Amino acid sequence: MATTFQSGTAAMLEEVVDAVASWQQEGAPVQVHPGDLGWNWRFGAQALADVVRVWRRDGQILAAGMVDDESRLIRMAIAPTVNDDETFAGELLADLSDPGRGVLPATQGSVEARSGTAFRSLLRRSGWVADESWTPLRRDLTEAVEDCGLRIEAVDAHHVRDQIVRDRVAVQRASFPSSTFTVDRWSAMAGSAAYRRARCLVAYDHDDNAVAAATVWSAGPGRPGLIEPLGGHRDHRGHGYGRAITVAAAAALRDMGSSSVTVCTPSSNLGGVAAYVSAGFERLPNVLDLRRPG
Prior knowledge:
Blueprint: E1 3-7, H1 13-22, H2 34-40, H3 45-51, E2 52-57, E3 60-68, E4 73-78, H4 86-97, E5 110-112, H5 117-125, E6 129-140, E7 151-156, H6 162-175, H7 183-190, E8 198-204, E9 210-217, E10 224-232, H8 241-255, E11 260-266, H9 270-278, E12 282-283, E13 287-291
Parallel strand pairs: 4-5, 10-11
Antiparallel strand pairs: 1-2, 2-3, 3-4, 5-13, 6-11, 6-12, 6-13, 7-8, 8-9, 9-10
Helix pairs in contact: 4-5
């Protein structure tokens, strides 16, 4: 049966989250995770739906992507059942190559597709070239995680404490100069289908300053979890708080039943890669986005 392509709708998002969650597998490449969708949900369901694209066969979602218009990139997740499906790969490529389909613009575009062996192979054979390099990192969660050494407070969909939420937002804005995170955007994210299996963590130093924060996303028991995002307050750097919140994030995901915790950071971010390694993460081989020629 032929594959059908659809632009996202707000009503479709929960189905997309569930599909992407079911594709997370140990030993598979780090690809788009429910947490990526959840973090982007902070701008509202309709804003997320506007950048979501899905591919179905016989009504079942087999691939999903998020389009970043600014970078002309689509970040994709592909079902393991079509990993080696050459026909499906060809249908994806046709949609990515035709600007009229509304996936990528007529000008140069890129794809982040770390899964889908047949699809990645076809992209290369079709002349797509190496683009940005990313470094995936993973920490196994079968063993207990050490104490991080700081007080950690958490908020999830069922336990919301206003002061912790305000601190979560403040640390995000102090960690990333261009951040537009607000309490309202946290609430939009926390009300999403993806956040039902997520927590926000805030780390406090011995003077009760909020010094680091992270959001952790489960894909369900026995599946890899994700940290997205993680940051340290700019006024409290150099004290190991980034490592501490990373360890706390791993512990939270283990408590939520995740089999491992993964992150993916630009390979150029040498400090970030080193920080994750210091927190017990294994550095995996770099992966490349692929850019359409022309």
